[in-house]
Design brief:
The structure holds three protein chains of three kinds.
Chain A: H1 6-11, H2 16-53
Chain B: H1 2-11, H2 14-46, H3 60-87, H4 90-122, H5 130-151, H6 155-186, H7 202-234, H8 239-243
Chain C: H1 2-17, H2 19-40, H3 44-66, H4 72-76, H5 79-85, H6 90-119, H7 124-151, H8 158-185, H9 191-220
Helix pairs in contact in C: 1-6, 2-3, 2-6, 3-6, 3-7, 3-8, 6-7, 6-9, 7-8, 7-9, 8-9
Classes of the chains: A mainly alpha, B mainly alpha, C mainly alpha.
Chain lengths: 54, 247, 221
């Protein structure tokens, strides 16, 4: 463990903006993308049976 | 030998690849979650503070894997494209189309984290360094590919035109990288040496590799899900989907 | 070979009949490069420094201007389909069209460039080098651009899409071409730049007609 306190961990000894900006952007992108794909998937699955009936 | 070839071609058909992909997705998703979680743990808690860059260097744990993946995915796209043009398999085009958005996302993340790394290290958000510039061009190539595919309505033409573009792009990447490097050495004044890597502790390298493997599994899981969407969208009228609609 | 001459002659006749086409590209080049001093100021040393890049980017954009019309008219009236079906190998016809595009959109730009170079206060020796680098570079632009024109044939938003696809591929040409003039301005030999530019030119002129024909066949299917 490299950290003495939460404070130190969150500010990253002065590099907080940069480190959390990077990790945050990756986290956001890599959570949103699967959600979008999931949405597309669900949209197709709900549309499909209807098309089948017609 | 002949047996394995037959097996491969069996899975080249969307109808038989679809269930296979469905079985693979959960495995890769969980693998991605576990690997990325341990990568974050290694990167943020276990890896020691760097002597020169203090905590700022921790960006490396997402920056380098994202850059690797963005380049790797483009190569994989070119591989599928070559396969598609050579054997005229439908699945290859779908795979290429499914990979492109994820690759573009990684290219963007690599630029974004690179800028956030550059600011504290060199005092500027952007340097016209050979690697950064090449990465930007790679991002443009991804955008071009996606734009071309989305502009073409006929899926068959979209696949084949995209495949040609991806192949031309992959041939051009080394030329572009070389030319940018050449350009960079001529304009030494503005450049900052990126190659002087910080002396890396063992655990840093491990964290980076674990993270890269996590990103890799993530890319596979997302691309497979997307390829399943594409298969359904394109083959919605075909018999096998109607039969398996309840699955 | 016959096909090459045939396509070249046909496109040249058509281009000479519609003068506005190549005059537009040329005037675009002149106007864009002349706007730049108005944007950055008339300081001679600065202008001399940015001249190679400006002139090269101007050349790049003005060749881009003619590209959407490389295959589109032939596609619209069905000539292109006839060409693809004819016994003459399609790559030869495409090569002829590429050369015609260069003669119409590239060559006037090359000939006009030294005049604009004077406006940017380039020394005479560098003007010669500018012409040489553009002479090697503009056919390259036409050759690579033809591929983009074929890929985007008949698509909505074709022109904008074309530039998105093609401009990244133009980067090596821009770097070596503008770099040659810059090197000469700085008193370094430009030979390395020109050799590399020539190498890329040879490779792309050799492969472009084939790849472009493939793209055309994909578009025509």
């Amino acid at each position: 463990m490299q950290w003495n306190s939460w404070q130190e961990f969150l500010t990253m000894r002065g590099y907080g903006l940069y480190v959390w900006g990077s990790f945050g952007a990756c986290a956001v992108a890599m959570i949103l993308e699967p959600l979008w794909v999931r949405n597309r998937w669900n949209a197709i699955r709900t549309r499909q049976p209807r098309q089948e009936r017609s | 030998m002949s047996n394995s070839i037959i097996n491969w071609f069996k899975y080249a058909s969307p109808a038989s690849f679809y269930p296979l992909a469905g079985r693979m997705i959960p495995w890769f998703s969980w693998l991605a979650v576990v690997l990325i979680a341990s990568g974050v743990w290694l990167g943020l808690f276990v890896a020691p503070t760097d002597a020169q860059q203090s905590e700022g260097y921790r960006i490396i744990f997402v920056h380098v894997p994202a850059s690797w993946m963005s380049m790797f995915i483009y190569c994989v796209m070119a591989f599928w494209s070559a396969l598609g043009l050579a054997f005229n398999t439908r699945l290859s085009g779908m795979m290429t189309a499914a990979l492109a958005p994820t690759g573009a996302m990684f290219a963007f993340l690599s630029l974004w984290t690179g800028a956030l790394w550059g600011k504290p290290m060199w005092g500027t958000w952007w340097v016209w360094d050979a690697r950064l510039t090449s990465q930007l061009i790679l991002f443009f190539l991804y955008l071009g590919f996606i734009a071309l595919q989305s502009a073409i309505d006929d899926p068959r033409r979209a696949d084949r035109a995209g495949a040609l573009l991806a192949l031309v792009g992959v041939v051009n990447i080394p030329v572009i990288y070389f030319s940018v490097q050449w350009w960079n050495t001529l304009h030494q004044g503005a450049s900052v040496s990126l190659t002087k890597a910080p002396s890396m502790a063992h655990v840093m390298l491990e964290g980076m590799l674990v993270m890269a493997l996590g990103f890799w599994s993530y890319a596979i899981a997302v691309a497979l899900t997307r390829v399943r969407c594409i298969i359904l969208e394109r083959e919605i009228t075909s018999e096998w989907i109607k039969r398996n609609a309840v699955e | 070979m016959n096909g090459f001459v045939m396509a070249l002659r046909r496109d040249m006749v058509l281009a000479l009949r519609h003068k506005s086409e190549w005059l537009t590209a040329l005037f675009f080049f002149v106007i864009v490069t002349n706007l730049l001093p108005l944007g950055v100021g008339p300081e001679a040393s600065l202008l001399r420094k940015i001249a190679p890049g400006v002139l090269w980017i101007g050349a790049l954009l003005s060749t881009l201007l003619g590209l959407p019309r490389l295959f589109a008219p032939d596609h619209a009236d069905g000539t292109l389909e006839q060409m693809a079906l004819s016994p003459i190998p399609l790559p030869w016809l495409v090569a002829g069209k590429i050369v015609a595009h260069w003669l119409v959109c590239g060559l006037p730009v090359v000939l006009m460039a030294p005049l604009l170079g004077l406006q940017f206060d380039l020394p005479v020796r560098s003007l010669g080098l500018l012409v040489v680098s553009l002479m090697l570079g503009t056919p390259l632009l036409s050759a690579i651009g033809a591929l983009g024109a074929a890929l985007t044939l008949g698509l909505r938003g074709g022109g904008a899409l074309l530039s998105l696809l093609i401009l990244p591929l133009y980067i090596p040409a821009l770097i070596f071409g503008a770099g040659a003039v810059e090197a000469d301005l700085a008193g370094i030999s430009a030979q390395g730049h020109l050799s590399l530019l020539g190498a890329i030119l040879v490779v792309s002129v050799f492969f472009s007609p084939w790849v472009t024909s493939m793209a055309l066949r994909i578009a025509l299917e």
